[in-house]
Structure formats: structure tokens, C-alpha cells
Write a structure and sequence with these properties.
The protein has twelve helices and no strands. By secondary structure, it is mainly alpha-helical. The chain has one domain.
């Protein structure tokens, strides 16, 4: 994404946004190796507490980081384009991919799911209850839920912006009250302060499985309250931080100070939630669940500040490789889940250790996804929708300046 006024891109933030989407592949690839009870449609014979710890750690920060950057870039885009063009841009980049790819991904998901069930049942289709009827509560958004929730956040942001502009026509309240409050809340004690609403939302979440942290709103058209609070908070602060980008500079100077607390809080939350083996039981209200919620919220924000700050400090320059992966990450995330399940199903019967199977699944998946991106997406109408139109290198005139397409 280009900087304010169409200037230099935020290369560091582009890299982080692409990175957390790509980490989604690493995250979902762990599911077949998690120890304990069966919780995924494919469960490998080789289980791993190491991958269970990786699963837990990635879930603490991955989507919080993503929504902070989504809010930051959302306001940046709005200021650059204006309301009308912003709405059209988000419709093309977010709503259209959701409408286009959700039916395709769901069909592929169901097909692979049936195949996995047949393989696990000795080549015979297992008998089971019929799927639940499609309702507001059961609607399967799958891993594309983040696009749906983004649309909700964009709509809420535009509505709130309109109300604020009516009340605070001269901007006095924003500059005199909101901006100082944001500077305070995103200052040195940010992980503690921003953890409070996350911890409260998790504690009061009905039927909360605390080992899994923030419940993923991948089912139902009304996202669960805990996810709306946690990710809405991240989106909102990203939006407000864009008013004062110097906050990111402060994070870049302090990122290392948050790294050890982030690791410590993650480890403490994991131990308090039951250890490295996933616990499928619902949390009981009390000191333990309150402690897990507080540690989880703290870890989410400590990781977020550390990661964004590190990127601003060390990845601020242009890198063709990072830029390419950032462009490819949207496509990779959209298509990765059925590919992973198919590979997990193929490899599950073999008696290999997890540390051979897991890297193999990732390697094959990324070859498929990157090849498909390069061959059928990057320079096609699909790539134009996802990332903006790109010209093949042979069609770009030598010496001609290349302007980044609007996000």
C-alpha cells in the first residue's frame, strides 16, 4: 500500500500483511497433527506437541496483526480516494472475491471432506447424520470469514466516521481528545491496556473453549461477540493509528522490549489453559479462565506491536521477493485450505514422523499455490480483482516508472 498522498509504499506493512496471511497456511497445516482427541477431518497417526504449541502461538497474534493493518490501510485508502471510490474499491477487492470464491472453495472443501472420510473408513462412504440445514447460525464461511468480517468493519467505520464528522465538524474533539487517547493507549503499556477488553470478551463468551483463545467466526452470519470485540478493537486502533503514523515509529524503536513478554504470556496462557495438548472442554467461570483471557489478550497485543515494530525497523525498504509474496498471499490464503486437506489425506497413511510430513505438506502446497498464482492469477483478470492490474515484465517499457496499483 502506498503512503499518504500516493507517496512511498509502506513496504514493511505490506510484508507483514502478506506474512500473516501466509502464516495461515502453516497454522492450518498443523491441524492434522494435533495430539489428543480428533478435532479435524483428517488426523495423522503421527501427532506432535511441538506443532500444537505452534498452533496455539500463531493463533494468539495472526489475525490481530491482520486487522490492525486492515484498519490502518482502510483509513489510508479512504483519505486517498474519498468515500465513493473507497466503497467501490472495497467492493471489488473484498466483496467480489468473497462472492466469487466462496462457492468454489466450499465445493472443493466438501469434495475433499467426503474423500477424506471415505479414505478414513477403508474406502467405503461412512454413514452419518445429514448436514444441518443452512441457516444464519450454520452458514459456513470457512476460512474466508475474514473477508465477511472486514466488510462489517468497513461499514461500521464509515457509519461512525459520518457521525463523528457531524458532531465534530472542526475536528477539535478528534485532535484534542481522540488522538491523545490513542497515543496513550498505544504507548509503552499498550499490551496491558488493550488486553482488558479482549479478556472481558473472552471471559463472558458462552461455551468458551479457552485453549483455542479467540473463537474463529467461521460459521454463521452473525460473528461471535468475542471475535467482534477482539478483532474490532484491532481494526479500530489500526484505523486511528493511521491518523498518527508516528505511533508506528515508536513501535519500531521498542519492538524488542515486547518480544520476551509476548513469548512469556503465550507460554503462561498455554500452561494455564491445560498444556500443549488441546483441551476441548468449555471453560468454567473463575480465576483460571480470567487469567487465560488476560494472558491471551496481553500476548496478542505484545506480539502485534513486536511484529509490526520489527518490520518497520528492519523491512522498510523495497524487496522484490517480499513484494511478490505480499501480492501472492491473498490468492494463497483463498485457495490453501482444500489443498492442505487433500495433502493431509494423502500423507496420513504413511508411517513417517511429523517432522518429515509437515514440511512436505507445506512444500507441495506452496509449489501448487505459487505456480497457480504465477500462471493463472498474477497477470489475469483474477489478479486484477485481487491486487490490481499488473503488466508482464516483457510489456513494461524500459525506464518507464511503474506505479503500484491501488489496494
Amino acid at each position: 500500500m502506498k503512503g499518504v498522498g500516493g507517496g512511498e509504499r509502506y513496504h514493511a506493512l505490506d510484508a507483514v500483511r502478506g506474512g500473516v496471511l501466509i502464516l495461515g497456511v502453516f497454522f492450518h497445516a498443523t491441524l492434522s497433527f494435533l495430539p489428543g482427541q480428533q478435532m479435524w477431518m483428517v488426523m495423522d497417526a503421527s501427532r506432535s506437541v511441538e506443532l500444537s504449541v505452534l498452533f496455539f502461538a500463531l493463533h494468539t497474534f495472526r489475525m490481530t496483526v491482520f486487522f490492525v493493518l486492515a484498519g490502518f490501510f482502510g483509513r489510508l485508502l479512504l483519505e486517498r480516494l474519498g468515500v465513493g471510490a473507497f466503497v467501490m474499491n472495497r467492493a471489488k477487492r473484498i466483496a467480489m472475491p468473497l462472492a466469487m470464491f466462496w462457492p468454489i472453495v466450499l465445493t472443493a472443501f466438501i469434495a475433499v471432506l467426503i474423500w477424506a472420510a471415505v479414505q478414513a473408513n477403508g474406502g467405503v462412504a461412512p454413514e452419518g447424520p445429514p448436514p444441518p440445514p443452512l441457516t444464519v447460525e450454520t452458514f459456513p464461511l470457512l476460512h474466508l470469514w475474514f473477508l465477511y468480517v472486514l466488510l462489517i468493519f468497513y461499514a461500521a467505520a464509515l457509519l461512525l466516521r459520518g457521525v463523528v464528522h457531524l458532531i465534530d465538524r472542526k475536528g477539535t474533539m478528534r485532535s484534542g481528545l481522540v488522538d491523545p487517547a490513542v497515543r496513550f493507549l498505544t504507548g509503552f503499556s499498550a499490551p496491558v491496556l488493550l488486553a482488558i477488553p479482549v479478556a472481558v470478551a473472552l471471559y463472558f463468551k458462552p461455551n468458551w473453549m479457552m485453549w483455542f483463545g479467540i473463537p474463529t467466526p467461521d460459521t454463521g452470519l452473525v460473528p461471535n461477540t468475542a471475535a467482534l470485540v477482539a478483532y474490532g478493537l484491532a481494526f479500530g486502533f489500526g484505523w486511528l493509528i493511521n491518523r498518527q503514523p508516528q505511533i508506528l515509529q515508536r513501535w519500531s524503536e521498542r519492538w524488542a522490549l515486547y518480544l520476551v513478554p509476548a513469548i512469556g504470556a503465550t507460554a503462561a496462557a498455554l500452561i494455564l489453559a491445560g498444556g500443549p495438548v488441546p483441551v476441548l472442554a468449555m471453560a468454567e467461570p473463575g480465576v483460571k479462565s480470567a487469567g487465560v483471557g488476560a494472558l491471551y489478550g496481553f500476548a496478542s497485543w505484545a506480539w502485534t506491536i513486536a511484529i509490526i515494530g520489527f518490520a518497520m525497523r528492519h523491512l522498510a525498504g523495497h524487496s522484490p521477493a517480499r513484494r511478490y509474496l505480499a501480492d501472492a498471499s491473498y490468492w494463497i490464503y483463498i485457495v490453501h485450505l482444500p489443498i492442505l486437506i487433500a495433502l493431509q489425506t494423502l500423507i496420513a497413511p504413511y508411517q513417517w514422523p511429523w517432522f518429515a510430513k509437515y514440511p512436505l505438506i507445506l512444500a507441495v502446497a506452496f509449489v501448487i499455490m505459487l505456480a497457480s498464482y504465477q500462471l493463472i492469477v498474477r497477470y489475469s483478470w483474477i489478479g486484477s480483482i485481487l491486487n490490481g492490474k499488473k503488466q508482464k515484465p516483457s510489456k513494461v517499457k524500459r525506464g518507464a516508472p511503474q506505479l503500484a496499483a491501488a489496494e
